[in-house]
Amino acid sequence: MSPNYRLLALDLDGTLLDASLEPSAATKAAIAAAQAAGVHVTIATGRMIRTAQPFADMLNITTPLITYQGAHVQTADGTVLYDNPLPPDLAAEVVELALAEGLYIQAYIDDQLWIVERSPEVEEYLGFSLVDIPVNVVPNLVEIVRQKPVTKLVWITNPTELERTMQEWGARWQGRLEIFRSHDHFGEASAIGSSKGVGLAVLAEHLGIAQAEVAAIGDRENDASMLAWAGFGMAMGNADRFALAAANHVLPTLAEDGAAYGIRRFVLGEE
């Protein structure tokens, strides 16, 4: 029996991965079944290329990956299909404001981290990775982001302060930058046109697959654009309100192997 969809985009954290950073056996088996049925399976993540690739390898995914919240789409051999860095002046504005407000912020340049000082926040962030990430500590981060293409910016703080930045910074840069939350403690800034929905559209066009033939699964605000763009968007049972509002269907939770269920029931059409 042929699958219902030809391209499947999967978020990682909160969708395929819990704190153990290991997809469940049921998830691995469902992804393998989709691949065997001819479905192009990809990862759509906010992670860097170097931190997404180990999970792609683990799941035998060779379809181009959507990384950096959709700001970068790249094939397995390193061919770049889409890259959308922040405008330098806007990147500098965000970094300058974050530092003035006493917030920790990190810039992503050339698939490496750039920060002003080694702090508990960067150690927390590095704990989400299976591989070592190069970290560049520089005193003049504002000038660095003016000079080098920045793929995205991330600030890490407590949920209350993060909510404040979502409201204030979102209004400040509305229409000029994408400002969103990717974790209870992480806020992000990307160039306009950088979203998982845009990245998924780029990939579908590259593969010659129609929008109606695309499915996606995610759990957070940063997944909402791809859940809305896909022909069939599925939100995890543990999803936030943004992902739930964008989805066509709500799956069981991560703890209940919701992604595996969604793949088998809706992508493969198993009863």
UniProtKB/TrEMBL annotation:
<dbReference type="Pfam" id="PF08282">
    <property type="entry name" value="Hydrolase_3"/>
</dbReference>
<dbReference type="InterPro" id="IPR036412">
    <property type="entry name" value="HAD-like_sf"/>
</dbReference>
<dbReference type="InterPro" id="IPR000150">
    <property type="entry name" value="Cof"/>
</dbReference>
<dbReference type="InterPro" id="IPR023214">
    <property type="entry name" value="HAD_sf"/>
</dbReference>
<dbReference type="GO" id="GO:0016791">
    <property type="term" value="F:phosphatase activity"/>
</dbReference>
<dbReference type="InterPro" id="IPR006379">
    <property type="entry name" value="HAD-SF_hydro_IIB"/>
</dbReference>
<dbReference type="GO" id="GO:0005829">
    <property type="term" value="C:cytosol"/>
</dbReference>
<protein>
    <recommendedName>
        <fullName>Hydrolase</fullName>
    </recommendedName>
</protein>
<dbReference type="GO" id="GO:0000287">
    <property type="term" value="F:magnesium ion binding"/>
</dbReference>
